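#lab-general

N.A. 3:47 PM
ok so I finally got the sequence cleaned up, no stray characters, all 169 residues accounted for. can someone with queue access submit it? mine expired

B.Y. 3:52 PM
send it over

N.A. 3:53 PM
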Amino acid sequence: MSTVAHHEPGRSAAESAGSPQLSAVAPLPVRRTREPRAIIRPGSDEFFAHQPVGRAELPDPRPLLENLTRSVIEVIAGARDLAQLARWITADVHTVLLKRVILAERARRVRGVTGTVPVITIGTITVSEPRDGAVEAVVMVHGRARSRAVAIRLEGLDGRWRATSVSVL
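B.Y. 4:20 PM
back already:
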């Protein structure tokens, strides 16, 4: 049992501050449950990893494919910050795009050109589903001077689509 100082009623705070009365206090009861708690081991990759989701639980991927393609082209052109795409891309895609952005920025600096919003139109979007919860697509992008193809792989992770691969050809 532990001892704790208590203020006695009828004595002023100044009186009791000089000579506290010690009384015994019962320890807190130990909480016992019938079901054992799950043991979470530090560093458990399964617990903290992205949870895959089936196609039935995900929205139509076409709007995301179109918007993500437009955003990736704007990031490479220097008109958009790569951090704005963090919600829709994985860490691997971020690393690949970051390298591409750095190279494009160096090329613009050498030419003395600033980053501008590219004038593009989204062309055909070809979508295939190799397995449940995964979509692979090729999005055609038409600009003034040239056309490009953007290959994107989306996977259903944590209840939403996330790009696990992006290649601008």
